[in-house]
Amino acid sequence: MVWLNMNAKVVVGHRYREVRSTLAGEDHALLPKSHFMCDASGSCTGDGAPSSSCVFVVRRDQDIYIQTLRKLFNESHGIFMGLQRSEEELAGKSRKAQLVQVSKNYRSVIRACMEDMHQAAVSTQDPALQGQYSTQVSILSAMELIWNLCEILFVESATAGPLLLRLLDWVRLHVCDVDSMVREVLSSESPSKHKLFWNVVDVFVLQGRMDEARHLLSKEASANPTSMNMYKILDDLMKKMPVPSLSNTQTLTELELKWQHWHEECQRYLQDGTFASNPHMESICKILLGDEDAILEKKELMTTWYHFLVTRLLYSHPTVKPLELRFYAQSSMDLFLGGESSPEPLDMILMAAFEFEMHQVIKECSFGSNMREFLLLEYASGLFSHHSLWQLGVDYFDHCPEYGRVYLELHIERIPLSTEQKALKVLRICEQRQMHEQVRSICKIMAMKALRNNRLGSALSWSIRAKDAAFATLISDRFLKDYSERGCFSDLDLIDNLGPSMLLSDRLTFLACKTGTDFPSLKLILSHWGIAPLQTLSLRQQQPLASLMQTLKLTQNSSRVCCPFRKALLSPSFMHQIANPQGGLPWARFGWERFFVGSEGSAKAQQPLMPRCGHPVAGKYREFHRLYGEKRFPEAARLLLTLMTAHIAPCSFWMTLLTDALPLLEQKEVIFSAEQTYELMRCLEDLTAGNPDKRKFQEDDIETTKVEMLRLALARNLARVIVKEGTVEGS
Amino acid sequence: MDMQFLDQERIVVASSTGTVTVFRHHQNNQTLSADHRWEKAHYHVDQDTACGGAACTGVVCNNPEIVTVGEDGRINLFRADQKDAVRTIDNADSSTLHAVTFLRTTEILTVNSIGQLKIWDLRQQRNEPSQMFSLAGDRVPLHCVDRHPNQQHIVATGGQDGMLSIWDIRQGTMPVSLLNAHEAEMWEVHFHPSDPDHLFTCSEDGSLWHWDTSTNVSEKPSFLHQGGRSTAYLSHSTINQSVVSAWLSSDPTKDRMEITNLIPNQTLSVNSLDVLGPCLVYGTDAEAIYVNRHLFA
């Protein structure tokens, strides 16, 4: 089940139900309230039929995939990050203003998105899409409606007076069903003649848009000079209506007093029948008086119970306090719905807001101590399932102090690394947050991928990024394997230019390099003892074999030798080419010109070559390398021989030691004396003869070649030493 | 992954699937239509396996020629009017090629993920670079490259560590100067095409820097720079002595440049940028494209 991606779960048909429930269960534990959407691609022939092999793509948070909403996610992320930044700086007074501004920014993003979605719905031809867009528009508009109310009540927490003004704005902004009617009437040639004229006036009055209502009425008045007086009185009443002010110039008591006075005046006019001759005007007067029945008569014009609530408050309780809202809200809803229909979810949410239940919800939320964190986690998890929006989720997780990190770790590992650039982005996120485990795993995945695709250079750069020595070693093995298979390095450009990065690998890395002539050379970089100050050892063009053998020796001696390379070097054909420099193959022209080895002291240099298993011979052997490195060849030769003849070294190690002797045998000057050479020959014969499984030994081409090369070298040395010793004695 | 105008009407787009597409922009109705498509121009060894395509990371056009590079280390040379690739250099690079640009009509520059800058001469039949440069020390991957519009030997590259490197391709194999810049990958670098004293870089760290070498600091009173914009002076270490260009200059008294972060509050990566005249365009991970029309205002 591990391979199942959290983003797109692929479940095979006949097990679908079972698997799905497991997943759902799993997800519930981690992410409550997750909804699974199911896209069935192909028809499932029968549930439970073993032959059915449909594949379902199960996705959560379908909404995330709607194109238009991406703008919403991205923009709101920007607002969120801005808020988090400023949160640290701001405190006290300016904070509230700031928060209101942030809230408004969020709303304007929602609105913009809603408009885009609306445009999309209008312009599309596909009815299914149209339906989808329309649904989104209504969801967004409900969101904005709720948000705006919450902004008034919770963010701004408007006090009595301004509260009503805010609520009026809210209603004006959101009850837009009547807007088209208003437009129609206003744009007609003579509005007062329009059949909906009075409806529009009512709408204005119900929404407290007094100036607009008066403007319309004045038109009607000029058309009816007979009832001029009546209009004038109504106009005067509407003009005089006291409204709360946003500034602190008047106290609530003052307002209440004025309002009481005005209310009584309206009452008087209604009672003395001033408007009796015009039912429209009379009903307006009743509305001004806050007559519930009169207002309810205009139900169609208000369309919603919360409009009714606000109108009712405007004309009967203009100084309503936030905490009194709940009583009016409940009764308004009951009155408005009148038992005919039951409240919808949106109504319930708004009601909860009016009742200030949100606070309660947040405080007593069962999702642990932190509602904010829970919501952020939930939201960010949703974003993470999207192929492009996941980056936004990261920042949200960052601001969840409790579980953010854990969520991020879980999610980030599930991001499909489709391109290197994406992998780099994920990697950067992990590196910035010191998520070492994830860094390693991402690099490993990418390096493996590159290796599978035969992109050794890329693989190497990924393992370098992860500082993964073992993997770098694995890759260098691949280089060498290619080398042994094809006889040439495949990625010269890379090998040529490996910097200290190769120090990562604790193994010897052999690098071929073009020297600019026809003589490619083997560049030997002994890994962790500093190749930085490269030193060119003496050219040994005359003795390619010896040079080769030195190389060989070095590989041999390392306890962690790159086997493919050794194999390549020891393959008979290679040997043959080395031995016959005139051969036609380019190989034959190999001059082992340069060896790059550390310029630091040889003792240090030899360290990685030691068998690291705490071998008893190690100390002595190390001494040998030191002597060799210091070019104290005779001493080195003596020590080497002692190691074998005194049985300090186990037999199993003799072959290595004998191979070590090879470069000494191939030196210009004779090092081993005749007697020592005999000793060496004896050791070699002991070794080959003493091997119980001779056949296996024979079959091993490399071993055989090596033995033969040793014999050849020993014989040549013997010949030289006999001549030399004879000459010296003779002279 | 990358795109460039081929001519007034055509745009070449490089995709992460390895496909290279030429789109035609219909100006009258503001729509795009695919003109030509090279499927899987970039691919991994087993082209037939499911994951065959390799991301095409960079494209550069010099009408009618189109050069693309990819994660597969391949260089393709296309001609807008020809169905098949004119030339393909398989395994041109053993690591990922991150970007490509024209040096001259027949020569291209590539940068790769092991810190190398290579020059390829397309006239030569050898499948090897004609010149190779590399960063010293750690082979930090290079992500972008641009050439000085007038002085073609000056090349700027940006690396994974946010470092800006200036190279003089006439000499040496190492960068002339290294400038510590962004905190994360530098995704794009561009000289201003008509005013090459100005350079623009953008990065994963969400910043976009304007490098200005035209201002001689000593001539201007310093209070001019103490605005709201975060301005810093860097003195850069150079090796070269002989070149006049401000980018290669080494005179420590003049050797100052004004660096301005053009988008101080951005949090998400700025992935790409381009500059022409007074206009600067950049795209971010917030899935938005920003246009600044008054660059030097």
Automatic annotation (TrEMBL), chain A:
It comes from the Eukaryota. InterPro entries: Nucleoporin_Nup85 (IPR011502). It comes from Lonchura striata. Component of the nuclear pore complex (NPC). This is Nuclear pore complex protein Nup85. The lineage of its organism: Eukaryota, Metazoa, Chordata, Craniata, Vertebrata. Keywords: Membrane, mRNA transport, Nuclear pore complex, Nucleus, Protein transport, Translocation, Transport. Functions as a component of the nuclear pore complex (NPC). GO terms for molecular function: structural constituent of nuclear pore.
TrEMBL record, chain B:
Gene3D superfamilies: YVTN repeat-like/Quinoprotein amine dehydrogenase (2.130.10.10). Coiled coil: none annotated. Transmembrane segments: none annotated. GO terms for cellular component: nuclear pore outer ring. It is found in: Nucleus. WD repeats lie at residues 135-177, 179-221. Keywords: Nucleus, Repeat, WD repeat. InterPro entries: WD40/YVTN_repeat-like_dom_sf (IPR015943), WD40_repeat_CS (IPR019775), WD40_repeat_dom_sf (IPR036322), WD40_rpt (IPR001680). Signal peptide: none annotated. It holds the Pfam family WD40. SMART domains: WD40. It comes from the Eukaryota. This is Nucleoporin Nup43.
